[in-house]
Each structure stands twice: as C-alpha cells, then as structure tokens.
Design a protein that fits this description.
alpha+beta, Alpha-D-Glucose-1,6-Bisphosphate, Chain A, domain 4, globular
Length: 147
C-alpha cells in the first residue's frame, strides 16, 4: 500500500487536522528535525507506543499493542514534509507536516492526515488519531529543545 488516494468500496476519507502550534525554533531547524523519522519517537506518548523501529526515512510502531502504523517519508518541500503509509499499516494514509516561519526565532507547525478507512474503523480511530496528532504537534518544541 503506497498511501495513494484510491478508495475501495466501503472506505471513507478521514481527515485529521492538528491544532496550529507555535514553536520556539526557527523553521529550518524544525523542518530539519522533523525530516528525520528517527526523531518521531520523541513526539509520541511513550506509554502508548510499542515495538518502535525507525530510520531517517521510515518508522514503524504499535499503538497500545492494537495496530501497527508503518510510515515512510515520501518527500520534502520548503515548508512541508510528506509522509505516507507503508506496507504494514492497516489502512492507507498521507500525512503532511507543515512548518511556517513566524519570525527568525519562531515558527508554526501543523499536521494534517488523510486516511482511507472503512466506516467502522473511522469511528474507532478518528478521535484517537486526532488526539495523537495534537499530542505530536504539541511535543515538537519540547523534542527539538531536548536535542
């Protein structure tokens, strides 16, 4: 599964948009940090993540031992990082991490996800994924400062 937007019969597009988060870091440093998928472990709630594996281009982990998210980097632009589902994910998705410079010392980050899921899965994963992406966005600054 490549993360392409091909909906199968019975699947729906689930759109998740995190809060816009102000970060005390310049946009370039933030983009550089987030373009390395090894760093994403620092964005997740560690008590809910198991079986973490990563490289600069790929990460895979289980959420509360229920389902596995398998993510690979698709591309990088001036203000955005594009991630897509890889073969072990239970559904296809695209994630866009946007970083916009506020001034030379601050930027704004937002995470958007489009997931192809069936109606039952949409009900089950919609709220937890929204909470997860908000958690991630809110932890970017903390993770960069720990670096």
């Amino acid at each position: 599964m490549s993360g392409e937007n091909h909906l199968k019969a019975g699947e729906l597009m689930l759109k998740i948009i995190s809060d816009k988060i102000s970060i005390r870091s310049n946009a370039l440093d933030c983009l550089e940090y987030l373009s390395n998928l090894n760093n994403y472990k620092n964005l997740f709630p560690l008590e809910k993540i198991n079986n973490w594996e990563s490289s600069t281009e790929h990460c895979k982990f289980s959420i509360q031992n229920t389902y596995t998210l398998d993510i690979k980097k698709q591309g990088l632009e001036t203000n955005s990082i594009y991630l897509v589902s890889a073969e072990k994910s239970p559904f296809t998705f695209k994630i866009k991490v946007e970083i916009h410079e506020k001034d030379s010392l601050n930027c704004i980050a937002q995470i958007t996800c489009d997931a192809n899921v069936n109606p039952i899965l949409k009900v089950l994963v919609g709220k937890p994924l929204n909470e997860l992406f908000n958690y991630m966005a809110n932890n970017i600054e903390k993770a960069i400062l720990l670096e």
